[in-house]
Amino acid sequence: QVQLVESGGGLVQAGGSLRLSCAASGRTFSSYTMGWFRQAPGKGREFVAEISWSAASTLTRYTDSVKGRFTISRDNAKNTVYLQMNSLKPEDTAVYYCAARSVRGLSPQANGYPYWGQGTQVTVSS
Hints:
By secondary structure, the protein is an all-beta fold. Helices cover 0% and strands 51% of the residues. It is built from no helices and eleven strands.
């Protein structure tokens, strides 16, 4: 069982930046693929980014709308994954969720992630 706790959400003006953090429990964090998803009011849960680490390489994937603006990273020593969000737009407003799955490799489907945090609100004003 993995427990995930997000932090770092808030209210920011368009063009601003936020960094989300997700702290995970467990002793095998480095073997987990970590993802960020978001859900805007009245919409379904949307994939944002994911990261999978091995000693040989770190793999990342982003949804097209955030490429060049968002960066996902992880610190395996701290059991934490981050989402640096720059050049924020009003359409980025959503509840952002951290997710984890116990296999390496990328697969940006929400139903492939069994572990979820409680979410953190990000609001971007115009």
